[in-house]
């Protein structure tokens, strides 16, 4: 009995030591899906065909370290990344990493990102679906200083400055339409899912200065002959 107890204690200590060891991402058990914050993740850099939306993973390996979570939905979570000393990763510019929780839309989203030239790298096929894509500065409209200045201190809806809010929203809509139409005419792609979660706004001095569409999983590629008839919903 004493020998068995001693063996169990020894085994427990060994397991604790093993669990404390850093495990390379490529060797992580598939039951522990997704990289951890602070973990370096090797990815295959893509070469995009913006005419078709196809891409090849022939650009070599880049390594990005997972940062804080930015956002998430039913298709996956999006994180900041840090390239560290990886010069090839740094050369790709500002980026974010999406850790897909559903495989249903991964192929479509990557095709759409490749079509607009914003796909940067993908996982190495180790069981997780990871997509490195172009990152943009900005905030959701409801998080901008311009919006909060009009709504943050209001406790009663009757106190809202409706004309000012209307002007802000109309300005935001104009920026979204401009950005959406640019994607249609420049890349032949229609976003289809424009809402507060899928648009980032830049601002300066308390005023909006531009908009950027993100999250392209439900977009559709528009045939060239139909581009002139498209509009932003």
List keywords for this structure.
single chain, 233 residues, alpha+beta, two-stranded antiparallel ribbon, 5 helices, 12 strands, 28% helix, globular, disordered N terminus
Could you describe the 3D structure shown?
This protein has 233 residues and is of the alpha+beta class. The chain is built from 5 helices and 12 strands. Helix content is 28%, strand content 27%. The model is unreliable at 1-32 (pLDDT under 50). It is globular, with a radius of gyration of 23 Å. A 6-stranded antiparallel barrel has the order 1-4-5-6-8-7. A two-stranded antiparallel sheet has the order 2-3.
Which helices and strands occur, and which strands form pairs?
Blueprint: H1 2-20, E1 40-45, E2 47-48, E3 55-56, E4 61-73, E5 76-82, H2 87-90, E6 95-100, H3 106-115, E7 119-122, E8 130-134, H4 145-151, H5 162-187, E9 189-190, E10 199-204, E11 207-213, E12 220-221
Antiparallel strand pairs: 1-4, 1-7, 2-3, 4-5, 5-6, 6-8, 7-8, 9-12, 10-11
Largest sheet: 6 strands, antiparallel, barrel
N- and C-termini, Cα separation: 73 Å
Q: Which descriptor suits the 3D outline? A: globular
Q: How confident overall, as mean pLDDT?
A: 85
Task: Name the structural class.
Answer: alpha+beta
Give the strand order, joined by hyphens, for the main sheet: 1-4-5-6-8-7
Helix content: 25-40%
**Unreliable stretches covering 5 or more consecutive residues:** 1-32
Radius of gyration: 23 Å
Strand content: 25-35%
Total helix count?
5
Task: Give helix and strand order, one letter per element, not per position.
Answer: HEEEEEHEHEEHHEEEE
* DSSP strand count: 12
